[in-house]
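From the pipeline queue, job 12 of 40. The input is one protein chain; the requested action is below.

Action: predict structure.
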Amino acid sequence: MFGFPKYLLLPIAGAALLLSSCASTSGPVKITKVNPYHLESTRIVDTDDQMVEFEHRRHLHGAITSEEYHAKMGQYYSVFWKSATKQSVTVRLDYRQGITGSQVFSKELFIAKPKRSNVTKFEVTGDEYRDGGKVTQWKASVIENGSVVAEYKSYLWKE
């Protein structure tokens, strides 16, 4: 059989079966990705990529005075998630900031009628950003009937 030892087939097949059972299953609710965006300068980014420039301008939109521009500085998070059920949920962002150390902050949004594909947006801006510093770790969760049904963490997140 193509020069492959037959005695290795059973252990390889068993390992594949075992690893596939450890993979997370796609339940009725799943967070597909989280897009973080850090806005730290009012100066428009000099780039040929129009999408990068648009993202920067979009977050600054509506600011006229210097105070309004500084109030928009901070970090923005878009949580993309899917739901096979139509049950109401709460989407939560837990995060830690550089100046506040290990203290965990949370923001929650209640979604009464989720769609099949959803985007929930969070902001850490203004005084909250100036006083606490950059977000160093974050975890997004979808909560249904009081229990976490989906979770997505940054690489640095520690429980």
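Job complete. The beta strands are 29-39, 74-83, 89-97, 105-111, 117-125, 135-144, 147-153.
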